[in-house]
Amino acid sequence: MAEKMAMAKAINESLRRALDTDPKVLVMGEDVGKLGGVFRVTDGLQKDFGESRVIDTPLAESGIVGTAIGLALRGYRPVVEIQFDGFVFPAYDQIVTQLAKMHARSLGKVKMPVVVRIPYGGGIGAVEHHSESPEALFAHVAGLKIVSPSNASDAYWMMQQAIQSDDPVIYFEPKRRYWDKAEVDVDAIPAPLHKAQVVREGTDLTLAAYGPMVKLCQEVANAAAEEGKSLEVLDLRSVSPLDFDAIQTSVEKTRRLVVVHEAPVFFGSGAEIAARITERCFYHLEAPVLRVGGYHAPYPPARLEEEYLPDLDRVLDAVDRSLAY
């Protein structure tokens, strides 16, 4: 039976299921135990599974990930939480030079079943270092899988699949969507982890997004429909690998593409999508691929973040520019 739950609750239930079914699964991070995490995503897990399975760590991100690597070498499946997106950089060295490289370095003999959970993105009025979108920095690194759910159902199932993966997965959780509710069927057959999904059919233009921007793109499609425009919304779900086949199929139908993400447009994931789709769909496109995202500037103070983040008007403007070609 499907149950309606918030994304934060769905991730909690997914972690609970993994802890219950596999004794090698561990949850680690700052304040994940007694406090249940700053967003209460791990609430109650330490109480039910004990301090040896749900571990409150020191405030040392490099140490958290380094310990997880050692545990993975010993056959465990650690799920580590980086408390906020901007806190991940002390662990960047461990992630890109150790975690991502171990499989290749060992000629395939060593697996690295580590999940790194990172609440990311803006929209919650937080202070500096609490609203970053660093996904492109990790997507550039071979050996890492990068995913981001946009709804509670995907959050539940993508966490299950990430934990079961023998490769390291960076699991970006859109914190502004933690409290959005959706139906979650814990007995369903999930879509493949890196498969994009069409969440709204359309014929005039494709909006491609992942994580926090999928809901915005659905709102844009609703607004455009009132003006007689039919927009298709594609939830990419995965940043690395990217489902270019799904994007190509959609673009061959609509002939236009706008990519939306919170991260800065400059050298963002939208740039890779634009380049690849231009190569693949050159004779189908009726307009250049456009991108909407954050500005090439440090994330601003909370009182200015609504000016920085993509909104309905900015995405609609890109839609209008594309349709004007």
UniProtKB/TrEMBL annotation:
Recall the taxonomic lineage recorded for the source organism: Bacteria, Bacillati, Actinomycetota, Actinomycetes, Kitasatosporales
Name the chain's protein: 3-methyl-2-oxobutanoate dehydrogenase (2-methylpropanoyl-transferring)
The record's Gene Ontology biological-process terms are:
branched-chain amino acid catabolic process; response to nutrient
The superkingdom listed in its UniProt entry is: Bacteria
InterPro entries documented for this protein: THDP-binding, Transketo_C/PFOR_II, Transketolase-like_Pyr-bd, Transketolase_C
Is Oxidoreductase among this UniProt entry's keywords? yes
Q: Known SMART domains for this protein?
A: Transket_pyr
Q: Which SUPFAM superfamilies does the protein's record reference?
A: Thiamin diphosphate-binding fold (THDP-binding), TK C-terminal domain-like
CDD domains, alphabetized: TPP_PYR_E1-PDHc-beta_like
Q: Name one GO molecular function term.
A: branched-chain 2-oxo acid dehydrogenase activity
Q: Which residues form the Transketolase-like pyrimidine-binding domain?
A: 5-180
Under Enzyme Commission nomenclature, its number is 1.2.4.4
Quote the PANTHER family the UniProt record gives.
Answer: 2-OXOISOVALERATE DEHYDROGENASE SUBUNIT BETA, MITOCHONDRIAL, 2-OXOISOVALERATE DEHYDROGENASE SUBUNIT BETA-RELATED
* Pfam families in alphabetical order: Transket_pyr, Transketolase_C
